[in-house]
């Protein structure tokens, strides 16, 4: 299967892989990822403000439970929507599905401008709908980038997409701070009735609408995408896509548990202030952003054996989690956060890059599977960590290292299902033969 890809003629592979995206097209696609990530980061802190007027004299514990449930239903929307949208994108055209996702994203935000008219059930429905429509953006953007990007520069573009997603998460809370200042301006205060929450929702919806218009004007025609899909009949076996989905789910399980563990540790240790916990989250995002920058500027994924890159990332993640489980000072706490963030920040873009080597006609399914696995991993990781932390507290981080250690052991065993680096496979027939024979059982 791998060898046949390398030996195809340029005429056979040209329509699928040689057509490149323009700067404007790539910019709008990256901006769409940034906007949905920023929307999540900006809207999550607003959930208690939506619920308080509707829940009356509910105690803080009940309010906290609803905030957690609303976060979970958003993730559930992604989990359900990602494989469905990915499949539809492969059949109906990725550009169409991406635009439908952005339309739905904007439509699910606008009713939140008047949350008092929705009720608690209505807010739940809208958060689930937002996650469902975001699931049409998350897998389809990388599928489009993979479809129209030459293999020699695909890794750098995936690192760029990962960086834009992380920047969006960092930008989201800043949007809240900016809204609080802007709402003091006379004309804006009248429009939003003095509410910074209303302004944040309006800005998030406006940015989504802007992305929709920009992409509608610049994306490749659906007909050309359909021709490209029809021209490509090979690709990694489905078992290899499944392997990537499982790996992605495991890493997201650990990442979600690691992030929740930081929050819970801050609540359990009075000497660890909320400011320090926020600094750790900022450190985590910045380290992952730095790793994406390294991948972008060095082109490491285009030259390296992905198995070794993943193994290196998992070793870093395991080391960081063990430091967090056994740290004796604040300095080692920060070091553990950095190591864990660097490890997961190295693994996740590598998995996305390998999934991009899938057959062009199955890219939507491959990327949708990655997004669904990520949503499932996040949900299970948060639930498991909440239970574990109540039982063993700080040692939870050591338990979280076990899934990574088990995955690392599997990576060290050559298997037929393992996907090879698409650039190295297509570099030369001799290299392809070696890669193919080395992965046979």
TrEMBL record:
Keywords attached to this entry: Cell membrane, Membrane, Transmembrane, Transmembrane helix, Transport
InterPro entries according to UniProt: MFS, MFS_dom, MFS_trans_sf, MFS_Transporters, Tet-R_TetA/multi-R_MdtG-like
Pfam hit, one: MFS_1
TM ranges: 21-47, 67-88, 95-113, 125-146, 158-179, 199-221, 242-265, 277-297, 309-325, 331-356, 363-390, 396-413
Compartment annotation: Cell membrane
Taxonomy, superkingdom: Bacteria
Broad class of the protein's primary localization: membrane
MF annotations from Gene Ontology: transmembrane transporter activity
CC annotations in GO: plasma membrane
Domain called Major facilitator superfamily (MFS) profile: residue spans: 25-417
Membrane-topology descriptor: Multi-pass membrane protein
Stated name of the protein: Major facilitator superfamily transporter
Organism annotation: Hydrogenophaga intermedia
């Amino acid at each position: 299967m791998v060898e046949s890809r390398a030996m195809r003629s340029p005429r056979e592979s040209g329509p699928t892989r040689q057509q490149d995206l323009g700067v404007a097209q790539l910019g709008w696609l990256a901006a769409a990822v940034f906007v949905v990530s920023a929307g999540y980061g900006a809207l999550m802190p607003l959930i208690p403000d939506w619920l308080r007027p509707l829940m009356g004299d509910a105690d803080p514990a009940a309010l906290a439970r609803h905030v957690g449930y609303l976060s979970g239903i958003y993730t559930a929307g992604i989990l359900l929507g990602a494989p469905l949208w990915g499949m539809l994108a492969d059949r109906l055209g990725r550009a169409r599905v991406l635009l439908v996702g952005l339309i739905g994203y904007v439509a699910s935000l606008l009713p939140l401008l008047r949350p008092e008219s929705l009720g608690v059930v209505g807010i739940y429905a809208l958060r689930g709908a937002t996650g469902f429509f975001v699931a049409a953006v998350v897998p389809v953007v990388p599928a489009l980038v993979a479809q129209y990007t030459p293999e020699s520069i695909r890794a750098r573009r995936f690192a760029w997409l990962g960086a834009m997603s992380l920047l969006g998460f960092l930008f989201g809370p800043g949007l809240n701070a900016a809204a609080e200042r802007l709402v003091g301006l006379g004309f804006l205060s009248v429009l939003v009735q003095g509410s910074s929450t209303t302004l944040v929702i309006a800005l998030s919806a406006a940015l989504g609408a802007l992305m929709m218009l920009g992409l509608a004007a610049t994306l490749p025609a659906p007909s050309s995408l359909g021709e490209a899909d029809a021209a490509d009949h090979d690709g990694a076996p489905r078992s290899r896509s499944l392997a990537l989905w499982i790996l992605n789910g495991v890493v997201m399980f650990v990442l979600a548990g690691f992030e929740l563990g930081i929050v819970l540790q801050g609540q359990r240790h009075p000497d660890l202030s909320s400011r320090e916990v926020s600094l750790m989250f900022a450190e985590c995002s910045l380290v992952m952003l730095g790793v994406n920058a390294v991948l972008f500027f060095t082109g490491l994924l285009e030259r390296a054996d992905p198995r070794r890159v993943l193994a290196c990332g998992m070793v870093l993640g395991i080391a960081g989690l063990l430091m967090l489980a056994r740290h004796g000072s604040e300095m080692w706490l920060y070091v553990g956060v950095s190591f864990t963030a660097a490890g997961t920040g190295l693994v996740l873009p590598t998995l996305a890059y390998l999934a991009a080597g899938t057959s062009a006609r199955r890219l939507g399914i491959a990327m949708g599977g990655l997004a669904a696995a990520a949503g499932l991993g996040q949900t299970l990781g948060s639930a498991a960590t909440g239970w574990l932390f109540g039982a063993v507290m700080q040692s939870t981080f050591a338990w979280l290292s076990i899934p990574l250690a088990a995955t690392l052991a599997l990576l060290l065993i050559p298997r037929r299902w393992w996907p090879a680096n698409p650039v190295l496979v297509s570099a030369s027939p001799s290299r392809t033969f070696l890669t193919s024979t080395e992965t046979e059982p």
